Amino acid sequence: MKVPGLVDLQVNGYKGVDFSSLDLTEADFARACRQLLEAGTTAFLPTMITSPVETYEHNLAIMADVLARGEFQGRLLGIHLEGPFISAQEGARGAHNAEYVREPDVGLLEELIDWAENRIRLITVAADVKGADHLASCATSKGIAVSLGHQMATEQDLERLVQAGAVSLTHLGNGIPAMLSRHRNPVWAGLANDDLLAMIIADGHHLPASMLKTIIRTKGPQRCVVVSDSAPLAGFKPGSYETMGHKVVLEEDGRLHDPVTGYFVGSSATILECMNHLAPLDLASPTELIAMGFYNPLRLIGLGAADVAPVRDISFDRKRNRFYLLQ
Questions:
Q1: Is the pLDDT of residue 144 over 80?
Q2: Which are the catalytic amino acids?
Q3: Domain ranges of the chain
Q4: What class does CATH assign to 2-239+266-325?
Q5: pTM score, two decimals?
C-alpha cells in the first residue's frame, strides 16, 4: 500500500545536533535535516524548546536561512516553538529549564517571528498561565497554529484558549507531573475537549499502549497526530550522555531519560519508528494510521498534501503491519 508520506511536527534535533543549542551552525542544522529526511521523515517542523532570548535570535535566523533553500522546499514546513510561554511548575515544564520560561509576551512573540522571518508555523503554550489567551489570539492572527502543553490546565482553561484560536494539545499525556489529581487534571481535560486535536508521542516509552488506546478511541483517529519528539540523541547508540542541559541515559530499548528526575528528555525515535510502534497495536486501520502520520499533522498547521514534496517513497505492508522505505 503506497503511503503519501510521514510528517513530524516535533523534532528537537537529530544525530547529535541540538536545534536549541547556541552552538548550532547552519552546516550542522542542514546536515541533521538531510539525515532525518533520509531516515524516512517526509517533512517536519524543526523545534526549539524553551531557551534564552539570545539563543532564539541566533538559531531562528539559522533555521530561516536553511528553510529558504530550494532543497528543503516542501520538506521543512516551518518552525515549532515549544515554549517559552509554558508552565514553570516542576513536572509540567518537563525537561525545559525553568530559568528560561517566560510569561506570555506578545512583544517577544513578535521578535521571535521576525528572527524566524515569519517561518514559525506552530507554537506550544500553557493554557493556564496568565495572558495565554491574548498571546494565542495574536499568534493565530499571524497564521501560527497554537497548541497547548506543558501545563496544569483545567477544562475551563482549555475552553478559553479554544476561543482564542488554539487547535491542539502538545504530546497529550506527557509534559505533566508524575502525580496528578485523579479526576481534575490536564489529561482528562484534554481528552474531554472535542475541539483540540491530540498530538501523541508513539515511541513506545512516553505513553503505554493502554494510554495510546484511550486517546485514539476517545479523540478518534481523525483528531490524533503522531509525533516523534526526537531529541538530539535520536540516532545514537545506547549510553550515558549530556543533552539539552541534562545528564541522560539512552537505554538499549530506546528509552531516553534523566536518571535523577525520572522524566523523559525527548525521544530517541523518528516518526517512522513511532508509526511502526503504533501500527502493530491494532488501534487504527492502515488508512487511519496514514491520516495520523500525514494528513492530520498537515491539517493542524493549515497545510495540505500539495504543500509536501516527498523525499522517498514509503509503503505500508498490511500483512506485517509495518511501514517501509522503498529503495
A1: yes
A2: 229
A3: 2-239+266-325
A4: alpha beta
A5: 0.97
